[in-house]
Amino acid sequence: MIEISNLSEYIKEFQFEEKQLKAHPLIKNYIENQVQKLKELIEALTSANFWIDIPIIIGIDSKLVLLRELIITIEDFDFSDEEVLKIVEQDYPYYNKELCGYKLNDVTSHSLIFKIK
Q1: Most exposed residue of 41, 61, 74, 112, measured as fewest CB within 10 angstroms of its CB?
Q2: Alpha helices in 73-106 (DSSP H)
Q3: Nearest Cα to 26, choosing from 109, 92, 86?
Q4: Rounded CA separation 114/117 (Å)
Q5: Nearest to 36 by CA among 12, 11, 14, 15
């Protein structure tokens, strides 16, 4: 496992290829917006807003992970940028739940990773 010590290293690990992003400008813009939101949230993180902002940060992480999975296969399924982003926005709240083996209607254990916003 690679240790990550800053936002640049974190984003680099997604390996979004510039060639792919040039071919999908809406997705590129979406990623840039999510990274900017993440940067702002991290910079403003305090003990007073931690419990409010951490679920949003985890949500952005889920969006980026889903997007990485979808952009790899975007041409295989002939999805438009809009369709990919719609899938990401619909599915990100449930990503960690499914990743941990829960069904959508299951009650999860108490954990921050399930408190996505």
Answers
A1: 112
A2: 74-77, 81-91, 95-99
A3: 86
A4: 9
A5: 11
Query: What's the pLDDT tens digit per position in 51-76?
Result: 999 999 999 999 999 999 898 888 78
Give the closest residue to 20 by CA, choosing from 63, 77, 91, 70.
Answer: 70
User: What distance in Å separates the CA atoms of residue 31 and residue 67, rounded to the nearest whole number?
Assistant: 9
Q: Of 37, 44, 35, 27, give the one whose Cα is nearest residue 9.
A: 35
Q: In residues, how long is the chain?
A: 117
Written as six digits, the tokens of 110 are 């108490």
- Say whether pLDDT at 77 is over 90: no
The position carrying tokens 């992480």 is: 61
The per-residue pLDDT for range 3-16, each reduced to its tens digit, is 888 988 888 888 88
Measured CA to CA, the distance from residue 1 to residue 109 in angstroms comes to 25
